[in-house]
Amino acid sequence: DSTSPDAFFNAIAQGEILLHHPYQSFSATVVKFLETAAKDPRVLTIKQTLYRTSGDSPIVQALIEAAKAGKQVLVVVEVRARFDELANMRWAKLMEEVGIHVVYGVMGLKTHAKLSLVVREESTGLKRYCHVGTGNYNPKTARLYEDLGLLSANQALGEDLTRLFNELSGLAKESEYSRMLVAPRGLRTGITSRINREIQNHADGKTAWIRIKLNSLLDEKIISQLYRAAESGVKIELLVRGMCALELSTPLRVENIKIRSIVGRFLEHSRIYYFHNDGDEEYWIGSSDLMERNLDRRVEALVRVDAAKHKDELKSVLDEAMSDTYVSWELKANNEWTKHANDLMKKPLGDFHKHNLEKERVR
Length: 363
Known about the structure:
It is a single chain. The protein is an alpha/beta fold and 363 residues long. It has 2 domains: 5-178, Endonuclease Chain A (Endonuclease, Chain A, 2-Layer Sandwich), CATH 3.30.870; 187-362, Endonuclease, Chain A. It has helices at 5-13, 27-39, 58-68, 85-97, 155-168, 187-203, 220-232, 251-256, 292-296, 308-322, 352-362, and strands at residues 17-21, 43-50, 72-77, 101-103, 110-111, 114-122, 125-133, 145-152, 180-183, 209-214, 235-240, 257-261, 267-268, 272-275, 282-286, 298-305, 328-331, 337-340. The strands form 2 sheets. Strands 5, 9, 10, 11, 12, 14, 15, 16, 17 and 18 form a 10-stranded mixed β-sheet that branches. Strands 1, 2, 3, 4, 6, 7, 8 and 13 form an 8-stranded mixed β-sheet that branches. Strand 10, helix 7 and strand 11 form a beta-alpha-beta unit.
């Protein structure tokens, strides 16, 4: 808490930081990012999306303090977030009263992307600091929901967020992005092209592998692509917390698709997209599930994770979640979910969330 703003932002500038909540504190990282920015005299601008937040939100308070301190603050508020409509309208009114530029996104689209952008004046010029997450900016649910986030001072990502915020606030149209896939224009095509690339790689005799962790898998077009990939021989692993419309109704699907679900102490909420890409592996994290509404009727954002150590961390999350070591549910060939609670020797399997808590304690 006593870290100076210079030291805090320098830590991010030294290299991107991958966050895994609730195993790593949301309040000590993401909330601190915004609170530090609000108090730092070198920070000129803060831009933020808000979909859901807590009733006594320290994030909203930080944004208000920043505006009172004379910083330029822009907040994209989604007033149609289900069950949070009235709360978000109240927050929007409160923020407008202190001079925050509140915008309501793109006409006809819900803004579901989880984004923060801080612009700071430094000795070398203006520098952008970013956060892209998979979950809401809500410190209360962040203690119960499993989510991922990336803190970054990467120039390309900073430019991506600048373009996206300009689009959301009506200052730009049809932006191109270098490290992000953004719905509704680029996310569906980005996912589809990567599935097709794995199909082609397998046809060329190369290793092909797709792994996806998400909340819901319902989009018919994406499911058809996954069927085609599996029936072409591509190995597919899916970790689906909630609704899943994919069916294992052919021998090749049964052979090549493995579907698990983990239900426990924390609500598995993060989204990870992995494509083997002939060894040049791609990992993406962000706000979007594979549903028509997310891909076509919302503003969603995935960010590509580039650091080797962070790819290793995401690989570990997927490896452990898909392993036979922990209690999970698996979709079988009869399209029924079966609970795995014991190993072949009838010994109880481990608790995935307890394992992750213990792993973080000793790290």
